[in-house]
Specification:
By secondary structure, this protein is mostly helical. The protein contains four helices and two strands. The longest helix is centred in the N-terminal third of the chain and has 30 residues. 31% of the residues are buried. The model has no long low-confidence stretch (mean pLDDT 95).
């Protein structure tokens, strides 16, 4: 578990701040989701309102996990802050995209062709390219922090 001394580490602070923002987003999107449920005959929110709610909550806990890995990492503060910041930025971008689709209520599947944001058509392949970069950033950032934990534990790899 994190303690007060861990808060001196920039990556830990950044991750905890992000966790708070993501959790707050989860609570707010939950209220938004309920408002749709309460006022529609189907008792259902638009798909991306629901997705934004769930993703925000999930990413809040993922951010706390990154904070813990950063606190335990043997790597420098600079390496740890970048390793945490990259996945956190992608988590935020994903939530932002879900909220935007929820506000616009423009799709129930952002990968369906043609890919759109409101009335704007996205260039073919752009979302798949973004997803490839997102996966590399999220997995890579975590892998660096996990390697730092393993190094601290003396585990050779």
């Amino acid at each position: 578990m994190l303690d007060a001394a861990d808060l001196a580490q920039p990556a830990v602070r950044l991750s905890i701040l992000a966790a708070g923002v993501f959790f707050g987003s989860g609570l707010l999107t939950g209220a938004w989701k309920y408002a749709h449920i309460a006022r529609t005959p189907q008792a259902q929110a638009p798909a991306y309102v629901d997705i934004a709610h769930r993703a925000s909550l999930m990413y809040a806990f993922a951010a706390m996990l990154l904070a813990q890995f950063a606190a335990l990492s043997a790597f420098s503060p600079t390496v740890n802050v970048w390793a945490a910041a990259v996945p956190l930025a992608f988590f935020a971008a994903a939530i932002g995209g879900y909220v935007l689709h929820g506000l616009l209520n423009d799709t129930d599947n952002q990968f369906r062709q043609p890919q759109r944001i409101g009335g704007l058509s996205l260039p073919r392949g752009s979302l798949h390219a973004f997803m490839a970069v997102l996966m590399a950033g999220e997995i890579g950032g975590f892998a660096v922090l996990f390697a730092g934990v393993l190094a601290r534990m003396g585990v050779a790899f």
